[in-house]
Structure prediction request, 149 residues.
Amino acid sequence: MKEILLATAAGMVGTFAFAVIYHVKGRHLLYTFLGGGVTTFILMLLLTLTDGHALLSNIAAAFAGGVYCMVCAYCRKAPSTVFLIPTLFPLVPGRNLYFSMIALVRHSRAQFVDNFAAAVEISFGIAVGVLLSSLFDVFVLQRYLVRRR
Prediction:
């Protein structure tokens, strides 16, 4: 559990730095900071519980992050991408892409294929999670959150 909390804190700091670098407005920084924590915590928890199954873990983390961002967008009256892009930042498979490029340069075909396949799997998981959260937004959140106002 200690490793999960440490990774969550690192994800939150990375999300905050990403949001500051890309000029997210100050009134939205806290929400992107918390969103990075949500996605990182869910990712790390599910990776631990599923023995490293990256696809399902990234789908669930991206879905939770997407729903969180949609709710923030409704509550803060801002576009959801303001929250979504920084919130999904900790999920990006940069490590796998880096190691696949190193393997490509060193002509290590097996390592390249393994790392590149892992990066594609993670990217696919993020895309599916965001798609599912968008569908959830259309069919659930807009019906219940928008009607209240």
